[in-house]
Design brief:
Protein name: LLM class flavin-dependent oxidoreductase
Order of helices and strands: EHEHEHEHHEEEHEHEEHHHEHEH
Radius of gyration: 20 Å
Keywords: Monooxygenase, Oxidoreductase
Largest sheet: 8 strands, parallel, barrel
Distance between the termini: 15 Å
Number of domains: 1
CATH architecture: Alpha-Beta Barrel
Helix content: 40-55%
Strand content: 15-25%
CATH class: Alpha Beta
GO molecular function: monooxygenase activity
Pfam families: Bac_luciferase
Number of strands: 12
């Protein structure tokens, strides 16, 4: 089992000063994660989402983290690859340079990008985005495979040489954002690792792992993106761990409420509703979940898990022992990596740091070689 931090860069009450503090704090959290034994940090790429994410140039954040750390891996989770966001050759150059400077610690995840607000900001053709991601991945891996490269498809490139070359041979491990089941099948078919997004917990992890494995079993060698297959399956796990278990649960649920409400509102351009101090996070999430279910009933939508999983509250908000139990459940469900989501919009920096420390000292060692993880 591997362990990572998943950085979104949220702000409950955005101001330029709070934004700068949050970004500096995120670097400090990554430095602590390196010191206490986490395997990886992931950073998203989102644009123009005032409450949900201020991580618009994740390659800069990851470079800063790489310079401040020694062993932890550095992950794009993910870089947006539709052509209007960035040219594939530029992605290959930046990623290779970061791989070299970090000593071969880079992981590269790919995705379509987020909401209509983001794609409108860059003029992305939403109908072509999925196909462009696939083409961009073929271009990037081709650049890293062939010293003299050219491509003639939707883009005309080369012939030419793209430098530098990545340190990891033949290239850094490749992943795909898998927020939907179709993306899981695509990742498995191409031989890419899966970054499984969502708050579904062990039950959804088991379901999605089965889909991923079924697609792996059916893939043809000719359909692989590269000769280097990556079958790594990483899942998001929101968590807050403190000695004060009741406070950890209250802070974690409040953070989750902000996270899901900010993501729910980004599509319409509105801001998340103000949190009512008289209503605890669990009651607020349940109330919103019921609203979502009523809307689904009104529109006669039968498929539910994708829509309501974010409102589940059974997450490791509490003790380190509770976190150990959740890791065991996720491992039994097929997870290869737990991506700890700690920095949710209302979770204070000191709580993030204490959670990272407790995972490093009390949770991660239980799953290392030579240690005894708790029995099922």
């Amino acid at each position: 089992m591997e362990f990572s931090l998943f950085f979104v860069g949220q702000l409950a009450d955005p101001t330029p000063e709070r934004e700068r503090r949050m970004l500096r704090d995120s670097v400090e959290q990554a430095v602590l994660a390196d010191r206490v034994g986490f395997d990886r940090v992931w950073a998203v790429e989102h644009h123009g989402l005032k409450w949900y994410s201020h991580m618009s140039a994740s390659e800069i954040f990851l470079t800063w983290v790489a310079a401040r750390t020694e062993r932890i891996r550095i992950g794009h989770g993910v870089v947006t690859l539709p052509f209007a966001y960035q040219h594939p050759v530029r992605v290959a150059e930046r990623a290779a340079l970061l791989d070299v400077l970090s000593g071969g610690r880079l992981d590269l995840g790919a995705g379509n990008g987020g909401s209509a607000r983001e794609t409108a900001l860059y003029g992305v053709d939403r109908d072509a985005a999925r196909a462009q991601v696939r083409e961009a991945l073929e271009i990037i891996t081709g650049i890293w495979r062939d010293e003299e490269f050219e491509w003639h498809g939707s883009l005309d490139i080369g012939p030419g040489t793209v430098l530098p070359r990545p340190l990891q041979a033949p290239h850094p491990p490749l992943f795909l954002a898998c927020g939907k089941e179709e993306a899981l099948r695509t990742a498995a078919g191409l031989g890419l690792g899966a970054l499984v997004l969502g708050f579904g917990g062990p039950a959804m992890t088991r379901h999605r792992r089965a889909l991923y494995d079924a697609a792996r079993a059916e893939r043809a060698p000719g359909g692989l993106l590269t000769s280097t297959v990556n079958d790594h399956f990483a899942v998001v796990c929101p968590t807050v761990v403190l000695d004060d278990v009741e406070r950890a649960r209250a802070v974690g649920l409040r953070g989750q409420q902000f996270f899901v409400e900010s993501s729910r509102h980004w599509y319409g351009g509105g801001r998340p509703p103000a949190q009512d101090p008289a209503v605890d996070g669990e009651r607020a999430l349940e109330r919103t979940r019921r609203e979502v279910l009523d809307q689904l009933d009104e529109h006669q939508v039968e498929f539910r898990p994708e829509y309501v999983a974010a409102y589940h509250t059974d997450h490791p908000y509490g003790s380190a022992e509770g976190a150990v139990e959740r890791v065991r459940e996720l491992a039994d469900a097929g997870a290869d990596e737990v991506m700890c989501l700690v920095q949710m919009g209302t979770v204070p920096h000191e709580v993030c740091m204490e959670t990272i420390r407790q995972w490093g000292e009390k949770v991660i060692p239980r799953f290392r070689a030579g240690s005894r993880a708790p029995a099922a």
